[in-house]
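Quick one, T. Sequence first:
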Amino acid sequence: MATLSDSEIEKLFSGAPQYFARSEGHYTGAPHPSVAFPWDEVLEIRDLTDHTQIEDKAWGNVTAWPHITRDVHSDRSRAQRATEAKRKAHFYPRCRERPNMLSMFGLEKGSLGYQAALELSVADALQEEQWGFESIATRMPAIVEQRQRMLTAKDGLRHIEETLIMEQLIKNGQRYSEKHLRERRVSSELYNELFLQILHPPTKVLDHRDPYSLAVQISALVKILAAPNMWIDFSHVEWRIRLGQLLWGTDLEDEVDDGASARTGESVSDIQEERYWLLMQILLACELLIRLDAITEGEELGVESIRPAEIHRFEKDANKSVKWSLILARTWLENIEVAKTEGTDRQSSGDKSSGWLATLTKRMSLSREHGSQNGQHKAGPVYAIRGKHVQRQVDGLTHFARRLRWPDADYSVSRISDNCRAVVEGTPINTPMASPGSRADSHRSSYFGGAQPQQKLKRMPSRRRKIAAALHPSGWLSKSYVSGLMLPGEGLCHFLMATLLENHPEAMSRLGPMANLCGGFVYSGKSFWSTSCIVGRVIAAGHGAVECMGWISTDVIPEGLGDGWINIESEETTEDAQKIDKKARIWGKHAIERESNVLGDTDPSSVLPADFIIPFENIYKDKTPPMLNIELDALKLWAPVESVHTTPTEEYGATPLTERSQAVPEIRSYAGAVSFTVTDIETGEEKEYTFNLAKDINFVTAHPCVPSQHVKIMKSPSSPTIQQLDVTGNGACGKTASIVGHPLHKYFTYTALHLSELLAKQDFSLEALLGDYSSNGHRPSLTPASQSAAKVLVIDCITGFQPQPQEHEIPLSPIVSRSDSGFSPLSPGPESGGSFAGAFESASKKMHSETRRRQFGSDMEILVRAFCAEKGWNALISRRRRGCLACAIREAGALGWKVVIRVD
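Structure tokens:
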């Protein structure tokens, strides 16, 4: 009965992930969830993740978190030169997208990671929009008044001509690309530039030590950008997506008809003025970021010093809107360049190319006619914004299409390449496909809601935004993606699919111009689903399904439906709908860590070996479960619900429709269900099951772990482990320690049920299943747990299921990363000699020698997900040999979830 020492506990839980939620500091919002291995220093353990890596540099803007992108098209020498050229300190605002997009794509297809699962309840999409887009057209008095006040204030904003804005953006782009600071003189140079051209100088001295310091300039810029009711607040998801619409939406006087344009005002001047203020905001944000980068690099090089008081003042004054403006500035400086040409060259150089990519370089042109001395009119300079990395973005789109096994992907790739070549060479290309109509409907200008400003939509807030959009070959959705001007968040997933469709005339003609980017569609014998849709998250578990950047591709198509878009009706569970914002689980920092602690609720100084067991999913008292064969029969979409939705709807809005609305097919809403045939292999008995995908639940990939090689610490006469396992490895008890994971403390009560047992039951609730828990049946212990009900239900999907033969695919890279292969050396193999180092060596050899990537998935896994979707159970998916059952049960405690699906 000797207690375990700290050293023994650390050895015992080596390789076990521990779950946290910690605040990053003042003014940073909800705590940040994280997974760590505090007792391990081995890099192969610390680098384990529950989500996939971003596979293309073109998709890097999906997150504001620092990250490393594995680019499958990488030119190593060129990439190395680019890295060396940018090797300087950068300022990172403590503000990122929620949920964390790095964690949105779990290792299991259609699943999330731990961080994203907790952050969904405080997602950016849950915020109320401060201003609807219609408010621009109505010229809200608060905005007009604030802008007038700022332009007339003694320490406010100067009135700046458009040409000066563009010239300064050009200068900032050049300055941003410089490798190092130009000594100390850069501070005074920036001061004169800022306060003689853009802002009025401060009315009082802010820093008596150095009145011209970077800190003084930063403070003045923050004050302007933090002014309320003046700038676009990109902390709102709506405005992050609308950024491209405001920049590239067609003016009313433009001859080119753009079906995806924003008709936000009654005159061209309204649109131009908002464009002007957006460019002004970008300029001010770039000015601020340049100075923050300079002071950050100066601090690192020892030529600048930042006082703690200045840091505190910045964090306090720079609200979320300011920090998102900084993220916009970084995106702009990394991806956009402003080109200047003389007006006389406009016709010869700008109008040659008429394709949609060509319009990317000329649509933002700003020119003015100036009178000359002889009375003739001479065109002034013309400015255009251009994407710096068009080819990179096109390569990323090609990657996306091929990864999703897009029908006729080669043709789509060829068409995109032709468009790019036309832009580079300035030669004419094919005329864009005709617009669905001649003029846009100015009464439907909201991207997210079709209601007018005075109409308030009464609906429960959803953690996943419902988005529809009008597609057009020369639309702003494609321009946003190809330019790379995209802000972090799920918008990139929508832009990718929209750009792919807008460059495939056949797909556009068969699917129609309206897209439900949070639903799915059937095209050319395949179905494609957003992971925002419950059907996508369930069908993703099937054999042969693939996932890429928030989209699922599968050969399973809805029964009886042809090509077209589909909206799926589902509802959040009552618990999920209630636990949002301040009531979200993520705010319970202490509860998260306490309910997932490796030592449970025990005092760390009195931990006994008898307090732990090694949990199993396949220990059954009565009889062995039957051998089952499960086959998917059909994906069924029930008849449209009572209120057939046309786009735009009250649930989700759209970009403008055409006046000829009868030519635009409606997107119907369906209730989804999947049916299966389950056969008992021994008796031959067949049963049919149908599960309604009624609840909008989520699945999380249980975090990988590496079992400790110190299980023998548990070899104690009082330990229940000895009663279940043979830790000597001689096979005397039928189960050896080499196939198990970490110990589980008695605090974590669980009950394991075979999938066949759940299918055999009729009416039951999760609470009833957990209430039937018996401690004697699952954890023989000298110190039995006091709980009368289990905390977690483990659904055993391993015992008695024949694994389906796995299909392999061509790899994305000759080196397969752990996060993509889904392999983690959870137990030492026979070739490793049973050692910890040997297991890693074996795994490393396997991962580096593999030229094919294993694809998990089966009809059985679709069934268990569909079962949970009908019941409304959020569930962790724990795959054997990737993570142990004990760690999955503890992660369920951290999330506050009650179901673990255990698969082979």
